[in-house]
Write a structure and sequence with these properties.
mainly alpha; two-stranded antiparallel ribbon
Length: 1437
């Protein structure tokens, strides 16, 4: 024994405090050998010690030999041989384990030695080719379930907890091994490759996996139903049920305290690995079991692992604690004393007195014979969130609690509601984690350790060794002492080295699992379905992504600079290290914030009870049951205690600074005071990125809470009282010079800007501009004290918002003051954002780096790998009012390399042309990622800026006028909106071509539309020269449709449509007033013709987009406004000049293609209609009705085949409607809106071409086929009671009348009649003059329906939305609110029928087919022409 101790001291590694280890006696043991020859001496000593271990019967000697072996610094090859020898000897050591001989010395040294030697074999160099299953079986069944089941058999508590820590470390090491193989060779290669550095080693690992390795065995033992192994593991992790109290008792811990901490840390690591790998293991295990069942592999001697029920780990954690609770504490007082002791300990958080009282009640109930259910494992694990001294324990506990909350939010919600004191403790702990400053994570600690290890043996190294090697194991027997080990790791390695090993192994495991999941998910659905991971597309994908924090952040290594560095390593054939694993770089603050981000926006895909947001608001300190009253308030039971919502607001109130690391060559603005840090070191940059990532998550949480209607009131109060710096922060963000900020920081700052703009927009939408709601919106309960206080608060907030809006929007506060002198704040912010778009537009124009295009550069195999490497990252959602969501798709370069067959060792994986191809693909992938990332965030910021501008202008325009009144022409609000528009017009004019910077044009055009709408809310029509300038500017941009993005084109079209409808005189009103319509100049006609051709090209592009398979899945319901804008333009053209404005056979052919191509039928193989495509088809038909009011265009429409396309049966076969107003007869027929549109075209054609035989024949044939639905509508309308109609009234808009002056109702009615789409030159009654009342609520004040209902239907906002109902199901029942419009459409249809019928008879008389005196006389004299026969057969009785 003494000789073994001497060998251990002389040749030991000294805990690997420095590298290489100092061995002063190694040279003397073998003279003449170089320093590297020390390994030969160590190898010889290892062989001698193994022989002594196997042959000597004394357990003390065996323990000493194992201790000496663990302290030797052996090369990996010798370590493999030594471990194999120890594993062969391990079964002979079983009888020294139970009962624990020499207080467990043998088993402790066995696990210490084996862990140390196995750790010396890199995880990627064949560690798991060793047969670890026999020793794993011994550890689980002999040590874990027997030795550690009775702590009283150990004379020393430190020995017990040291052994427990080693067992949990062994389980952690085993769980990192390769998972079971599948039947797919490609997937098996991905599963095995990270664990081997050569093909031979990969074959050994694969053979070990196919035979059932230790990893699969450990997973089955832990995840089986009612597993005693899992229960005992959690029993040790929870310190026998004491949980946080076990760490808090300093006086009784003594020498066992460090090992108790290691138990908690290692046990939580085991839980973390189970959360990260259980989904993948369950899928592979189920596939393996089904294949074995189908093959009948249940023969004797089958060594494959058994089939059985395998559960995911969260189901086991939510089970009841399987041991006695509360645990007994010898020598302790009551539960009240325990709480008092814990309250003063830095490990413990501030726990309420209610916990102690409840524990006393539990003890009393147990003594009375009753039994109260034990808490669940996750409830006890949640106590570790409050651990203050060890952030790693807190971090792991937060991770476990988050995973349970994401997977089973309803059960976690219930268990917290059952124990209010535990809910309060968790809420306080979350508050502390958010408020406390971020600590150094494991990655930073490991980097510092690497720097320290590079130094030689000095005083610092000696002091560190002496500190960690201090004797913690007190034993009265001098021969019972254990060999030297670090008290912080229980192993003969120091903490820094062990931390480096853990980080490296976790990185490899994470890389292996993500590669396997991506490969399996990419193979799903193919011909070889058995080769895939079944169910990867289900909710398990979300659980797997959450386990590895997949997609939480677009890593900087994925952008251009990071992929360039990786490509350089590939070119030089250097090793490529995988990125840090999850939790290695995340702080407790960030984990706590991400808990709420997941619960509020991206968690629980199968949760239909909305338990996730309820759990989030419960943890935030809100009353989860307050939603029944319509308003959720603060939980009164926790008033006075800190809550997570308080911490969230404190974090938002004190934002991080705005550093800017200026790129080389970029100018630095002198006016920016917020950007002072010019040169930043990597640690400073990482800290700044972490701070801003936490701030981004906080903004997302607030935005998600505002999206819940019941929480808006309480969030508005919190924002107003606790977050007073929000508009100051917004000003700083809007003032950032985006073009000079480096990409990583720009991404986060753009995200913060987008989210903060959305939050402030919510605030402006929740507060009325006048401070109080209009009289019609006051509820009956608004006069109580609480509601009055809410109204008073909103009144004061509205005054503050008016000041903010005026400072942002209106530079001058004086009435009529000069507001055109300087660039407004919002316009300046928009121009800076537009500057951020310039690099994106340049990249898009030069290299076409869109994500859809990058796949075209590579061969098919590389395309498949790129698709499999896709990852959806958290980014601001495109949904209005939404927070962070997985909405940004990027490619992971590390995953791409692994799927391409390049492992982390990389030197010999690819060479020559293959390496060049991979490096080129990596560089283009990084450029594509950076382009997609910046484009997405810039678009989100621009979109949010547009929303904020609309909300601010709503407050500006909706504020009541000043006392004394100001004319609309001198209203400062209208002047401010016009000043912004005037400031934007030069920039918009610079982008008129749209070919160089489409994203700038998209942003500026959207803001111009918002300013146009705001200006018209508070002013009359502006001067015509200003309108003409805007019109020319917009039309010039629209004449380049192929160079303008889809969003920019839509913004420009909406702006022009607004300009035509609200800023130009109404031609119908002018016609009624006797104003002569002027003909267009030749130059204007030519320009309008070019604009018409551009809009038709845009309409064809919209049709192509509608035909895409994923259009309906993108949540878009409107096909576009190109055709609607064309209709508005053509309606203002004199009828004699329609042919010149809409000139060319290609345009008429495009109209026919739009009617045919965007048919009501969906894509091939679909069973239902496509609503956007159907609306697009009817929009083209409505444009035809406008154009066909002149003979020339009508003839061109017929010659292009337009009437044949319009009258085909498919146009109406999917458009059915069931109209059943209360108390009236039901109507089940073709949708009247579709009939109205077709009838309008027919009336227009027949009005200008009355003697065209082919048109007459087509119309008569169509009437013959659709006679029954037309008669049904006619009969239904004639049976309606007269009470549903009333005299028409002018429909009013906010601030001004809809058409003309409200003091001239006759002019309004005449204008509506003139606007009817009848025959040219005909006037008469119009069905749209009816005002349909609600038959259910006749006293309700409804909007008059004296508007063009068909046009509103074509926009997709009204009754045409019912066209998506499945006709096979019997039609669709119209809601009561839509009955008025449907009735108006029916009246309109009847009026058009009558007009068409009269035109048919007039045409027949003009053609001379009937003699005027014989029309009503004898019909025997009528000729036998087909047209005559059809007309007579269709004649109404």
């Amino acid at each position: 024994m003494a000789l073994c101790r001497f060998v251990s001291a002389a040749c030991g590694s000294r805990l690997l405090v420095v590298q290489p280890p100092v061995q002063p006696f190694a040279q003397s043991l073998q003279p003449g050998v170089s320093s590297a020859g020390g390994y030969t001496a160590a190898e010889n000593l290892a062989r001698v010690l193994v022989d002594l271990l196997a042959s000597h019967p004394e357990p003390a000697v065996k323990a000493t030999c194992l201790g000496a072996l663990g302290n030797l610094d052996l090369p990996p090859q010798v370590s493999r041989l030594t471990v194999s020898s120890i594993l062969a000897v391990a079964p002979s050591l079983v009888h020294f384990m139970d009962p624990p001989v020499r207080d467990g010395a043998v088993v402790i040294e066995l696990l210490t030695c084996t862990l140390r030697l196995v750790q010396g074999i890199a995880i990627g160099r064949g560690r798991y080719s060793l047969d670890l299953q026999p020793l794993t079986h011994i550890v689980i069944h002999q040590v874990l379930l027997k030795c550690l089941a009775e702590p009283s058999r150990f004379s020393s508590a430190s020995r017990y907890w040291r052994l427990a820590a080693l067992v949990l470390q062994w389980l952690r090491m085993v769980l990192r091994g390769p998972l079971p193989l599948s039947s797919s060779p490609a997937l098996n290669a991905v599963l095995v490759r990270p664990y081997a550095d050569s093909d031979d080693m990969a074959s050994e690992v694969a053979v070990r996996c196919s035979a059932g390795n230790a990893t699969a065995y450990a997973f089955r033992c832990l995840l089986s139903l009612d597993s005693p192994v899992f229960a005992r593991t959690l029993y040790l992790t929870l310190l026998q049920g004491h949980a946080l109290d076990g760490l808090a008792d300093r006086r009784r811990g003594g020498a066992a305290r460090p090992y108790m901490e290691q138990c908690v840390r290692s046990g939580l690591d085991v839980v973390r690995l189970l959360f990260q790998r259980d989904v993948l293991f369950c899928r592979l295990h189920a596939q393996h079991a089904s294949e074995r069942a189908s093959a009948g592999a249940h023969q004797a001697g089958d060594t494959c692992f058994e089939d059985g029920p395998i559960l995911q780990v969260h189901r086991l954690l939510l089970a009841e604690f399987a041991f006695s609770y509360p645990p007994s504490a010898p020598g302790r007082g009551s539960a009240l004393d325990a709480a008092a002791v814990a309250a003063s300990n830095p490990f413990s958080s501030d726990r309420p007195r209610l916990q102690a009282l409840e524990s006393a009640e539990m003890l009393a109930a147990a003594s009375a014979g009753g039994r109260r259910q034990n808490p669940s494992y996750v409830a006890l694990l949640a106590e570790f969130i409050g651990a203050r001294a060890r952030h790693q324990i807190c971090r792991l506990a937060l991770f476990a609690f988050t995973q349970c909350a994401v997977r089973e939010p309803l059960r976690v919600l219930r268990l917290l509601q059952l124990e209010p004191w535990r809910l309060q403790a968790v809420s306080i702990a979350l508050h502390d984690r958010i408020v406390e400053p971020d600590e150094d994570g494991p990655a930073a600690e490991a980097a510092a350790a690497v720097r320290r290890q590079s130094r030689g043996w000095d005083k610092y190294s000696e002091s560190q060794f002496s500190f960690e090697a201090m004797e913690m194991d007190t034993c009265p027997d001098s021969f019972g002492h254990l060999d030297v080990a670090s008290f912080e790791t229980a192993l003969p390695v120091c903490r820094s080295v062990d931390l480096l090993h853990q980080l490296a192994e976790d990185a490899v495991v994470q890389a292996a699992d993500i590669s396997a999941w991506s490969r399996g998910a990419a193979a799903e659905g193919r011909t070889g379905g058995a080769a895939s991971l079944r169910g990867c597309a289900t909710s398990d994908a979300a659980c797997f992504a959450a386990g590895y924090h997949r997609g939480f952040d677009a890593l900087n290594e994925w952008l251009t600079s990071g992929t360039g560095a990786i490509a350089a390593l590939v070119d030089d054939q250097q090793p490529i290290q995988p990125p840090f694993a999850a939790l290695a770089t995340d702080s407790c603050r960030l984990l706590a914030l991400r808990l709420f981000v997941l619960l509020l926006g991206d968690a629980a895909p199968d949760d239909s009870s909305e338990a996730a947001p309820r759990l989030a608001q419960l943890l935030l300190g809100l009353d989860a049951h307050g939603g029944a009253t319509g308003h959720v308030d603060i939980d009164n039971s926790r008033v006075g205690n800190p809550s997570a919502l308080d911490a969230l607001m404190a974090l938002l109130e004190n934002p991080p600074s705005l550093p800017a690391w200026i790129e080389n060559g970029a100018p630095r603005p002198s006016s920016s005071r917020a950007l002072q840090l010019q040169n930043a070191s990597p640690p400073d940059m990482q800290q700044a990125l972490m701070d801003h990532s936490a701030y981004e998550s906080s903004l997302s949480i607030v935005l998600s809470l505002l999206d819940i209607p019941a929480l808006r009131d309480v969030m508005l109060r919190y924002m107003c009282h606790a977050w007073t710096s929000r508009y100051g922060v917004l000003r700083n963000l809007l003032g950032v010079p985006w073009s000079s900020v480096v990409a990583p920081m720009r991404r986060l700052l753009l995200s913060e800007t987008a989210l903060l703009l959305q939050v402030t927009s919510w605030e402006m939408r929740l507060v009325w501009p006048a401070g109080r709601p209009p009289a019609g919106l006051m509820t009956s309960g608004s006069d109580d004290i609480v509601n009055q206080q809410r109204l008073d608060m909103k009144l004061s907030v509205s005054e503050h918002l008016q000041e903010v809006v005026c400072s942002l929007v209106a530079p001058s506060q004086e009435v009529g003051g000069a507001v055109h002198g300087t660039t407004p704040c919002l316009v300046g912010a928009a121009l800076r954002l537009a500057d951020a778009c310039e690099p994106l537009d340049a990249a898009s124009g030069s290299a076409a780096l869109s994500q859809a295009g990058i796949l075209l550069f590579f061969r098919d195999a590389m395309q498949e790998q790129l698709r499999a490497a896709s990852c959806f990252c958290m980014a601001p959602s495109a949904k209005a009012g939404g927070g962070l969501a997985r909405s940004l798709e990027l490619q992971d370069p590390h995953l791409f390399l692994r799927l391409s067959g390049v492992s982390g060792f990389g030197a010999q994986d690819c060479q020559g042309a293959e390496a060049s191809s991979l490096s080129s693909a990596l560089r283009q992938l990084g450029a594509s990622n950076e382009y997609a990332c910046m484009a997405f965030y810039t678009a989100a910021a621009c979109r949010s800026l547009g929303t904020f501008v609309s909300a601010a202008l709503h407050h500006l325009a909706g504020r009541p006028p000043a006392i004394g009144g100001v004319s609309t022409s001198r209203d400062p609000r209208a002047q401010a909106a016009r000043a912004h528009l005037e400031a934007l017009l030069p920039a918009l004019a610079a982008e008129e071509a749209g070919a160089e910077a489409p994203r700038r044009l998209e942003l500026l055009s959207g803001l111009s539309t918002a300013f146009l709408a705001a200006m018209l809310e508070r002013s009359e029509a502006p001067p015509l020269d200003f309108v003409r300038r805007v019109y020319n500017l917009i039309s010039g941009a629209l004449m380049q449709p192929l160079a303008v993005s889809r969003e920019a084109r839509r913004n420009l079209q909406e702006a022009m449509l607004l300009l035509l409808q609200r800023m130009l005189p109404d031609p119908a009103v002018e016609a009624v007033q006797g104003v002569q319509t002027c003909e267009l100049e030749v130059e204007d006609t030519a320009r309008l013709s070019q604009l018409t051709a551009a809009l038709m090209a845009a309409a064809m592009t919209e049709a192509d987009a509608l035909a895409e398979p994923g259009f309906a899945g993108r949540g878009q319901s409107e096909p576009g406004v190109s055709l609607s804008l064309l209709s508005a333009l053509m309606s203002r053209v004199p009828r004699l000049q329609l042919g010149a404005a809409f000139h060319g056979p290609r345009l008429w052919q495009q109209i026919t293609e739009l009617i045919l191509g965007s048919s009501a039928l969906g894509p091939l193989g679909s069973t239902g209609p496509s609503q956007p495509r159907l609306l697009h088809s009817f929009q083209a038909a409505a444009l035809s009705a406008v154009l066909c009011q002149a003979p020339g265009p009508a003839s061109s429409f017929f010659e292009a085949g337009g009437i044949s396309a319009l009258l085909r049966p498919e146009m109406l076969q999917s458009c059915r409607l069931r109209l059943a107003p209360p108390g009236l007869h039901a109507l089940d027929t073709i949708h009247p809106a579709a009939l109205v549109i077709i009838l309008q075209v027919l009336v227009a054609l027949l009005g200008v071409l009355p003697t065209h035989s082919l048109i007459l024949q087509n119309i008569l044939l169509w009437l013959d086929k659709h006679q029954q639905p037309l008669l049904d509508i006619l009969q239904w309308v004639t049976r309606l009671p007269l009470s549903i109609s009333a005299e028409p009234r002018a429909r009013q808009h906010a601030g001004r009348a809809a058409f003309g002056s409200s003091s001239q109702p006759a002019v309004v009615i005449a204008a509506i009649m003139a606007r009817s789409a009848g025959a040219a030159g005909r006037t008469g009654p119009d069905a749209l003059l009816l005002r349909c009342k609600n038959s259910v609520l006749p006293s309700a004040e409804l909007e008059d329906l004296c508007v063009d209902v068909a046009a509103r239907s074509l926009s997709g906002r009204r009754s045409m939305a019912m066209l998506t109902a499945a006709a096979a199901a019997g039609g669709h029942v119209v809601q009561t609110d839509d009955c008025g419009e449907a009735i108006a459409l029916c009246y309109r249809c009847v009026a058009l029928q009558a007009e068409l019928w009269s035109l048919l008879w007039a045409s027949a008389l003009k053609k001379g087919n009937f003699k005027e005196g014989l029309v009503d006389g004898s019909r025997s004299e009528i000729g036998s022409e087909p047209l005559q026969t059809l007309l007579l057969r269709l004649e109404l009785p």
